[in-house]
UniProtKB/TrEMBL annotation:
Catalytic activity: n isopentenyl diphosphate + (2E,6E)-farnesyl diphosphate = a di-trans,poly-cis-polyprenyl diphosphate + n diphosphate
Name this polypeptide is given: ditrans,polycis-polyprenyl diphosphate synthase [(2E,6E)-farnesyldiphosphate specific]
The keyword Cell inner membrane belongs to this UniProt entry's keyword annotation: no
Cellular localization per UniProt: Endoplasmic reticulum membrane
Source organism: Fonsecaea erecta
UniProtKB keywords: Endoplasmic reticulum, Magnesium, Membrane, Transferase, Transmembrane, Transmembrane helix
Membrane-spanning ranges: 74-92
Cofactor requirement: Mg(2+)
Length: 380
């Protein structure tokens, strides 16, 4: 390539100084043509007519706008297909569970008859001595407090018929503790609708941590001797003894708040030298925390406990979560260290995708079946 001549250099610089107004585009091309390298053989004049700078910039800007647009549409299509596939799968699973559990509910319906419930559980290897259920307080349009109390009453009747001597109900807000007297009366009415008039109706005791217990009258019935009243679990023959059910009401204040209060109390006692730090052991903490939910004057016989399970009477053997997912919702953590947890799942016959799960007998029965077939491994 030959060097630039002084004349061409002056002409080019003058054109640049004037902002490209001195020379036209054709004149500038002619000015630079002699300094360009020789084109390869076979390169025609038509091929040399490349688009100008503005055209190249327009084409490049067009590509910069089109490619992100196509990429975003591709991502949207992929995400839509993934959502569609999983949506169809979840909906089919809900429909399948709704149909299966509805058929199960039709086949194993209690008909408000304790004998049917006993027949459903008579072949189980074990029955929980303490059953705990996690319920949610629904909105007023879903029944509110009335629906919640009715669910508790149904669970009490099913538990008494299945031979479960203790039932604890966890509801986060603790509204059930405010209506303990009304709850006890409604539960008694529900038990009477299942078992009939006394003495066939099981006795009931309702209590809650830091609340006075509401115990039934222990006066023996003239049809049943006093020795029979001291009996344990409900049997197929009511003449062998009147069944008894303990109902424990729990809320969120019995969990985290109890741990905080116990920690504060032990720290204050250690600071005032009423308690040595070496005396604060796991056994002491276990005894203090378990005392808040333990049954006062418990009727649970230690000899009837499942083999190998050394737990306090206040610790549930089985926890049923009536919800689509396992959500303990603030349940007292210390009391469920060795508990079997059963989640009902998306069963309630509602395929609309709502998060509420109804309390149904078939779910209660499935939980007992799972508990009877569970393997318990206890370490040291």
């Amino acid at each position: 390539m030959p060097p630039f001549s002084e004349a061409d250099t002056r002409i080019y610089r003058r054109d640049v100084a004037l902002g490209g107004q001195s020379l036209s585009a054709t004149e500038r091309e002619k000015l630079l043509q002699r300094y360009l390298p020789t084109p390869p053989s076979g390169f025609s004049q038509k091929d040399s007519q490349l688009p100008n700078t503005s055209q190249r910039q327009t084409s490049k800007g067009h590509r910069r706008r089109v490619r992100p647009f196509l990429k975003s549409k591709l991502h949207f299509l992929v995400f839509f297909l993934i959502q569609l596939v999983f949506g169809i799968y979840i909906r089919l699973r809900q429909i399948y569970h709704a149909v299966v559990y509805r058929l199960l509910g039709i086949r194993h319906h209690h008909h408000r008859t304790p004998e049917y419930i006993q027949k459903d559980v008579q072949n189980l290897d074990r029955i929980p001595e303490h059953l705990s259920v996690i319920l949610k307080f629904k909105a007023e349009e879903d029944g509110g407090l009335e629906a919640l109390i009715d669910e508790v009453a149904e669970l009490c009747a099913w538990s008494a018929a299945a031979g479960i001597p203790m039932l604890s109900i966890y509801e986060k807000s603790g509204i059930l503790k405010t209506y303990m007297a009304s709850l006890q009366e409604l539960v008694k009415q529900k038990l009477s609708s299942y078992f009939g008039a006394p003495p066939a109706t099981p006795t009931l005791r309702v209590f809650a941590p830091n609340h006075p217990s509401m115990s039934p009258s222990r006066t023996p019935s003239p049809q049943i001797p006093a020795q029979a009243l001291a009996g344990g679990i409900y049997g197929s023959n009511v003449a062998t003894g009147r069944a008894h059910l303990d109902l424990l009401l729990l809320s969120a204040t019995d969990g985290r708040d109890t741990l905080v209060d116990l920690t504060r109390t032990l720290a204050e006692m250690a600071q005032t030298q009423k308690l040595r730090p070496t005396d604060i052991t796991s056994n002491l903490i276990n005894a203090e925390i378990s005392a808040t939910t333990a049954v006062p004057d418990s009727r649970l016989a230690h000899g009837d406990r499942p083999a190998g399970k050394e737990v306090d009477a206040g610790e549930p053997d089985l926890v049923i979560v009536f919800g689509p997912v396992v959500k303990l919702d603030g349940y007292p953590p210390w009391q469920i260290r060795l508990s079997e947890i059963f989640c009902v799942g998306d069963s309630g016959g509602d395929v609309s995708g709502s998060g509420s799960t109804r309390v149904e007998y078939q779910a209660f029965l499935r939980a007992l079946w799972k508990y009877a077939g569970a393997n318990f491994n206890f370490g040291r």
